[in-house]
Design goal:
It is a single chain. By secondary structure, this protein is mainly alpha-helical. The chain contains 21 helices and no strands. Helix 13 packs across helix 14.
Length: 531
Amino acid sequence: MTATSTHDTQPPREQFTGQVGFILSAIGSAIGLGNIWRFPGVAYENGGGAFMVPYVIALLTAGIPILFLDYALGHRFRGGPPTALRRAKSWLETLGWFQVMICFVIAIYYAAIIAWALSFFVYSFDLRWGDDTAGFFTGEYLQLSDTANGGPWFSLDFVPAVLIPLLLVWVATIAVLAGGIAKGIEKANVIFLPLLVVAFAVLVVRAVFLDGAGDGLNALFTPDWGALGDPNVWIAAYGQIFFSLSVAFGIMITYSSYRKRKANLTSPGLVVAFSNSGFEMLAGIGVFAALGFLAHEQGIAVGELEGITGPILSFVTFPAVVSQMPAGPLFGALFFGALAMAGFTSLISILQVVSAGIQEKFGLTRRQAVTGLGVVAGVVSVVGFSTTTGLIALDTIDNWSNNIGIVASAVLMCIFLIWVLRMGPELRYHLTGVSTFPVGRWWYICVGAIVPAVLAYMLVSRIVDLVQNGYEGYDETYLLYAGWGTLVVLVVGAVLLTLPRWRVDPDRFDAWPTYPPVASAAATSGKETDR
């Protein structure tokens, strides 16, 4: 069996043009909204400078190992999650479709946040949000339904300021995905990723020279060593690494499947992981330097500021910073432009998972799959998130799909592949066989014990908390439909997508390099075909 062997029934697979294109695309996927608005606040609230200790340990024992697991699956079995997991074992196909469903759900609300960033990019030039940034964001811009005073939990009252940029986001996304891997996704990342880094670097350099910036940086980096004794701090570190690397829900499985058969995996994986963490550090410096300036202008301590994480940081707190800093319109445009680019490169990677799954199972061309997917996802996105209840729906669905859906996917994948199917040696053999950086036995411990144990604890804790306490004070009936109902949609969708016959038999496939290496080519080929 050679590296180029393939069955006649398998159409030629698209490929990245080379290692640099793959690395840029993988970094573009990993660097998203969470790097900018989640990491700084999580670090500040969990020990400041001391948080770097569990953060680095989590990166080495969970982030990189599960990234390697995704790479090994996608590259060895040459497909998106349903194809790759089916080729590992036929009954794992449903887990692959579960990951596809997660990506679909995330994409429809992720696009809305990019639309917000585009709107605020335009608003930056005349500082349209005025002095009351909170009132502008939830009131004038989102026209948020007042559910506390009897407003509807779901409405079809569309908000033009959100609807128009959201439509533009979907048009741009469909155009990029229709261009394919090399001419669409790779080219978009080659353009946007350098622009994102340069724009954010300029913003950070300016922020650190603002009055009060030092106070903000001291607040972020002053270590609280006592926090290391709190298990929740360690859980927060693992959660941050897990959510920021785009692992365990299909993206890196799909991207690695578009690499050549003889392609280095582990060294690029290290570059992607450390680049993602490096950008998070850059974001932390920029955000807290800006928060220090805002606190200085208001005559309060950094710890007294509200809204230092999540959408409120980006669309309420940061506009307040921009309004008070010299050359505010320019730096506001840089910030929201960077936010939009970070979100867009992540969005196209998320939707490529869905597109790949549809193409491979139903035998559709790339353009057919992208067009159909884009129309359906775009309509659902517009109906659900460009209305006066869009923010509430986004917040709820995001919480259930991320904190339960993705985490459950990761736990199941590790348990099934490492413990049930005992595929750790084969996947490790594949990683080492094609890469310059060998993977040692430590990898088994990480993906077989540390990752599932930590994530299972996170999953159970989150479910118990949601059952007992609800979420954000939202109506229980609403949470039943929008929150728990999201999980039902994920599971039912995965099952229904598993049922149809494959247009092209995915089991007529030979994994390369052959495993076990001592077996004859014929015996190994027979083993792989049975999968």
